Amino acid sequence: MMIPFYHPSYIYSNTLPYMKLFLDTADVDAVKTRLSTGLISGVTTNPTLIRKSGREVQDVYFDLVKLGIKDISMEIVGENEDEFFARAMGHVKSYGDHVTIKLPCTVEGIKACKRLSDINVRTNVTLIFSPSQAILASLAGATYISPFIGRMDDNSLDGMKLINDIKNTLTTNTKILAASIRDPQSVGTAFTLGADICTVPVGVFDRMYNHVLTDKGIEQFERDHAASSN
Ligand code: E4P
Predict the structure, then answer these.
(1) CA-CA-CA-CA torsion for 93, 116, 40, 105, nearest 10 degrees?
(2) Per-residue model confidence as pLDDT tens digits over 176-196
(3) 205 CB under 6 A from ligand 1?
(4) pTM of this prediction?
(5) Residue nearest to atom 9 of ligand 1 (CA)
(6) Is 75 near ligand 1, meaning CB less than 6 Å away?
(7) Positive or negative, the Cα torsion across 192, 193, 196, 199?
(8) Chain mean position to CA 165
């Protein structure tokens, strides 16, 4: 058996366990069908996902609000702190408590994060690729930070190690929202290493149910049930 390289330090921490799944998509119909499982706590979007949906951004957001999604990460694009802040407040006005403002991990993004956190607006600092960035976002009061596992791995960096390093570094209330997840196995690993939330594409969520031994076991049980009911 392979000895895990990472130390699951969260086991020894005295913080309450926290484990949530978000869907990483702007496809409202796909969210609607998965919502009926009762397992989804939020949705994350970004400009690429919105573009992929082929819809106007505000239509997507309003539909997600109508579905009753309580936590929707809406990404703000801007040049400076004031622009980020003004656009964020526009979203707060339109979507109320449903909105989490997603900001990039830049000087201006972090400054806007601090201003929003100070007035209790939920924030998600995105495009996190190092513990240093996580520290800055967390000190700015970010509700969530989003380390991008898949994009790290795409660039021959270790996305899972980043999750673990951040977990071992932060001492604030900021939650680690593991993003850029490409497969079901990564969800388990990310939670084991300290993620508080995993945001997953719809296809990954669907595949989380599957195991070949479950299918095999069901077939066997169905056969045996039929035989003993005769
Ligand atoms: C979510 O918040 C991110 O925008 C998303 O997970 C990025 O995923 P990708 O790297 O697969 O585009």
Answers:
(1) 130
(2) 999 999 999 999 999 999 999
(3) no
(4) 0.92
(5) 180
(6) no
(7) negative
(8) 18
